[in-house]
Every structure is written in structure tokens, then in C-alpha cells.
Amino acid sequence: MKERADLLVVGGGIVGLxxxxxxLLRFPGREVQLLxxxxxxxxxxxxxxxxxLHSGIYYKPGSLKSENCxxxxxxxxxxxxxxxxxxxxxxxxIVATRPDQLPALERIQERGEGARVACxxxxxxxxxxxxxxxxxxxxxxxxxxxxxxxxxxxxxxxxVIRELGGRVxxxxxxxxxxxxxxxxxxxxxxxxxxxxxxxxxxxxxxDRTLQLAGHRRKARIVPFRGEYYELKPEAQHLCRxxxxxxxxxxxxxxxxxxxxxxxxxxxxxxxxxxxxxxxGYRWRDVSARDLxxxxxxxxxxxxxxxxxxxxxxxxxxxxxxxxxxxxxxxLIPEIQVEHLERAPAGVRAQAMNPDGQxxxxxxxxxxxxxxxxxxxxxxxxxxxxxxxxxxxxxxx
Length: 396
Known about the structure:
Elements: E1 5-10, H1 14-26, E2 32-35, E3 52-53, H2 64-83, E4 87-88, E5 92-96, H3 102-114, E6 120-122, H4 124-130, E7 138-142, E8 146-148, H5 150-163, E9 167-169, E10 174-179, E11 184-188, E12 192-200, H6 206-212, E13 220-231, E14 242-245, E15 257-260, E16 266-269, E17 273-274, H7 288-295, H8 298-319, H9 321-328, E18 340-352, E19 363-367, E20 370-375, H10 380-392
Parallel strand pairs: 1-2, 1-12, 2-9, 5-14, 12-20
Antiparallel strand pairs: 3-8, 4-8, 5-7, 6-7, 10-11, 11-12, 13-16, 13-17, 13-18, 14-15, 15-16, 19-20
Helix pairs in contact: 1-5, 1-10, 2-10, 8-9
């Protein structure tokens, strides 16, 4: 048995790293161990993130997303400044391309103002000044939105955690998890770890880690793949900053959009299609276990019954580059098929309730000495340092 730690974090994405970091700041000198099953940290949701520093304009006031996004963005910018990680406040525009989208745009503005997000309703002339290639009847300008490389943030967090005395242990996949009277015992393929407290930050596998601990999963992770294109160099002038559509309020997805990247280039997407594996970044990536977990879930079929037309449209955009371009051209009419090339896809760990409703907010469940982060999609990367601080504040 290895020496017992004060805190064991399972999962080395940006949220798990942020929890470990915040714990060491709050309790200097305590023993923290973080286990990651991959050979590098941030290889899944974090590593496929488009790098946006979200402002918090979309989220319901009082929700965990709203509260942690605003605080998390400030913490992330301060951390990046302190650690010399490049970031940029590019600003963004949320564009109504049709008059019937104006009421939804107004609701977003009200939410933003309620969350104290600086935002301005602008007309077509001002929109053309900010983004000359964009067509819209109106837009919200959000000057504080920005971009960063979350992979670099993760690598820096590993270094800082180790400097503070914590351990980040790679290639350690958890095979069993046993809560006890005064400690939690975790086994991997290589060893045994024990700690007073444990935080489950395993993202795409978070509900299964919950089950390993003997707890019932009230919601299930259903993986959605988001596919992206990049603008070729000759077309990158079409996007200066961040360009978003007015999102469909029925889904916790923001729609296909344009993102200028901190390292250069412009990313376009994502769509949202069912992934055939929890780490299914391509159509040919299929896991019988993961697929059965989705297809045997009544919640999934209830979602399909309500939104199958929308789902088929997303699948069609996955198979047809022309259809994907057509969606993008609603924002930038000049965009052409030849302007785009494929970029790596990501998989979103989306929690779904048995009634088929997608969990819209962050979901954190406490079970004794264990905390389970069960739904942490976008804007979790922006919010990560605040999520970590929020969880650690409950400890003593």
C-alpha cells in the first residue's frame, strides 16, 4: 500500500488539474496525487478544445455555469498572466442572420447583462466594421471574450502542481474504487493508492467511475462528436475574431461558428453527432460497450423521439462538406467548399437524464468523501479554476 494522500484526483484533464492546484493553494503542505490513464494530460475534451475564453453571456443566472464561468475567466486570465501563457481578448459577435432570431438575441443580452458581462447590441453597419465578411440583421458584441491554448495551460498546471509538492502520475487507469470508513482505496493496473478524499474528474468516463465507487448514476454520459474544419490560409481573412450564431435554445450546443486560434488559423464548427465510442473521434471508432450503453438507455431514445430531424441534419453535415459549408455560409456568405480543410474532431461528454433531457448545467455530486464531476462540457475549460476552488472550499 502506498502512503495515504490527503486528496486523490482521478482524471488529468483541465478540471482535474485545476482541482489539484486549488487544493494545494488552499492547503499547502498536504499530499495530493493525481492519476491520469493516458501518457499525457489533457488528451481528450481539453486537448480537443477550441481554446475560447468564454465570457459567460449565455448561461442562466445563478447556475453553476454562470457563476463559475465569470469567476473562472478572471482566474484563468490571472493564471496565464502570472505564468506567461499567451492569451488574447479578441472579442466576439453573436449574429442574428434572420429577423425571427432577434427575440433570442435579446434574451441572450438580458442574461449577459444580468451576469455583468459587457455586451452591446449592434446593427449591420457596426457589425461590418468588426467583421466585414459577416452578414446579419443585428448582433451582440462581447469585447471581453478571448482565446488561449488550454493544452499549454494543462502542461503549466502539471509543473506548478509538482512545484507545490503534488504528484501527477500518468499511465494509471483506475480499475477499482472502494470507499472505506476513513479512506478511499483505488487500484490501477500498476498499484494501489489511498486517500482521505477523492475527486472524480474523468470526463467521458465520469459516470462509470461513479459506478466503480458503488454509487448509482442518475444521469448517463452520452458522447457527442463535434467535427471541425479549418480555413485555408487564403480564406483566413474572412474571420477576424470569434463569430457565433444565435444558438438553438433547445440544445446546450452553440451551433457552428468561427474561432480564431491563439496559435494562428481559424477553426470552423462544430456540428454535434452521436459518437460510436466515448473516445470516438472518427466514424470508424466504434466501441460495442459504449454504443450499447447509449442505445440501451431510455433517455437516449426519448431525445431521439423529440429531435430526430435536428439529429439527422447534424449527421448530414458530418457526411456532406457542402452541407457543412451551407451552415457556415449563413454567417459568412463568401465561404466556399474550397476554403475548408478537415481539422481534428472532439468528443463532448454530455450527461443525459432518463427523461431524455440533456443536462444543461455543470453537475457535481458529493457522496461522503467523494466528489464526482459528472457534467463539465463547455465552458468548463474557462471555468476550471473556479470549479476547482468551489469544490475545494467544501473541504477542511
